[in-house]
Amino acid sequence: MEEKHAIEVKDLVISYQNLKKTSIKKTLLHLKRQKPDRFVAVKGISFYVREGEILGIIGKNGSGKSTTLNALAGIFSPDSGSIDLNGHSISLLSIGVGFIREMTGRENITLSGMLLGFTEEQVKAKEQEIIDFAEIGEFIDMPVRTYSSGMYSKLAFSITAILETDIMLIDEVLSVGDQKFKKKSYEKMKSLISNKDRTVVIVSHSIETLKQLCDTVMWMHEGQIKRIGDPNEVLDEYVAFMEKG
């Protein structure tokens, strides 16, 4: 039986521009012209994720984990290399992903769903389920700028959790909100992740979470893949490496 890949990444390179600070006087007088520095966050990595597989990504801060996840989500464009999702729909669960602040929660549900590739009719069919799950009451028809961080997080989580895509990307967010909602959201995430037809990529610092949930773990270090394979073996090696300092 032929192995099907949900995600194929080849020679992926992503860099950021770093502008050095210069004085206004120097800028105005053109006394010193410098080409902006570029920081290479991801350095030519290649990997694949099988359909239905749960891949965990770990690494210290600045290792390129979230940059890679954002590239998979289409938020960052690579400098070079390729990402092939093989026709699968994809969503990113990350508290950093924003709403349009002047729009209501209800309007943002529709917009977010359509950005995920769903039709307006498909989003409307799931709208009440999203609203009920989010538990933000009358605020659903108020501008998002009036929301607390907790309400914002609840709605963001609910949209991604209820509008189920083929591939789910999760960035350090397995539970959000108050204690009651945390329990509900964690159970919902476990249910979504356990669906054998869904492919999941999780970025996390939690060794236990990755050991419990993942089929494969990829350890990133300074923009490169240091090791990829069995979760227990990779994570034990990562812990030993980090303890050495």
TrEMBL record:
<dbReference type="InterPro" id="IPR003439">
    <property type="entry name" value="ABC_transporter-like_ATP-bd"/>
</dbReference>
<keyword id="KW-0813">Transport</keyword>
<dbReference type="GO" id="GO:0140359">
    <property type="term" value="F:ABC-type transporter activity"/>
</dbReference>
<dbReference type="InterPro" id="IPR015860">
    <property type="entry name" value="ABC_transpr_TagH-like"/>
</dbReference>
<dbReference type="GO" id="GO:0016887">
    <property type="term" value="F:ATP hydrolysis activity"/>
</dbReference>
<dbReference type="Pfam" id="PF00005">
    <property type="entry name" value="ABC_tran"/>
</dbReference>
<dbReference type="InterPro" id="IPR027417">
    <property type="entry name" value="P-loop_NTPase"/>
</dbReference>
<dbReference type="GO" id="GO:0005524">
    <property type="term" value="F:ATP binding"/>
</dbReference>
<feature type="domain" description="ABC transporter">
    <location>
        <begin position="19"/>
        <end position="242"/>
    </location>
</feature>
<dbReference type="InterPro" id="IPR050683">
    <property type="entry name" value="Bact_Polysacc_Export_ATP-bd"/>
</dbReference>
<keyword id="KW-0547">Nucleotide-binding</keyword>
<protein>
    <submittedName>
        <fullName>ABC transporter ATP-binding protein</fullName>
        <ecNumber>3.6.3.40</ecNumber>
    </submittedName>
</protein>
<keyword id="KW-0067">ATP-binding</keyword>
<dbReference type="GO" id="GO:0016020">
    <property type="term" value="C:membrane"/>
</dbReference>
<comment type="similarity">
    <text>Belongs to the ABC transporter superfamily.</text>
</comment>
<dbReference type="InterPro" id="IPR003593">
    <property type="entry name" value="AAA+_ATPase"/>
</dbReference>
<keyword id="KW-0378">Hydrolase</keyword>
